[in-house]
Amino acid sequence: MLAVHSYGFAARITRGPEASRLYLQCPLTDTADQWPDERVWDELGTRFGEPVAPGPITSKQVVPLRGVVFSPVRHGRLFLLGDAAHLISPMGAEGMSLALHDARRPRCG
Ligand SMILES: Cc1cc2nc3c(=O)[nH]c(=O)nc-3n(C[C@H](O)[C@H](O)[C@H](O)COP(=O)(O)OP(=O)(O)OC[C@H]3O[C@@H](n4cnc5c(N)ncnc54)[C@H](O)[C@@H]3O)c2cc1C
Known about the structure:
By secondary structure, the chain is α+β, with helices and mostly antiparallel strands. Helix content is 20%, strand content 22%. It has 2 helices and 7 strands, in the order βββαββββα.
């Protein structure tokens, strides 16, 4: 489940039948202590536009995420592949697939 809200991005990505990875965009200056579990669940509900059933949160971190595409990715016989060529947020959940794709078919750009 993904949401782009005026408060920021939110995502709930299932990791098996009983676990999820949750993402909430927040100011980079925030600390995990400023995000008690109740606030996390409330904020997810607000951004998703519907209540979210709470559960235990086992780990919480404020992580700087960014997306970058480097260019050019080729210098002669030297190729940049994977995250070295295009760093995408873990929320995209496709960095590994893209890296494998690059290795199979390096870009010529
Ligand atoms: C929290 C998180 C969740 C993710 N979830 C997903 C997901 O669900 N699905 C998905 O497809 N992708 C996911 N990704 C992205 C995926 O992990 C990366 O896109 C992928 O691993 C990129 O592969 P890579 O080979 O380019 O880089 P890496 O896997 O980072 O490999 C680079 C390697 O080079 C080594 N290295 C660095 N510097 C040097 C040096 N100077 N000398 C020698 N070795 C060096 C590093 O130690 C590392 O082993 C996730 C990433 C994160 C952080």
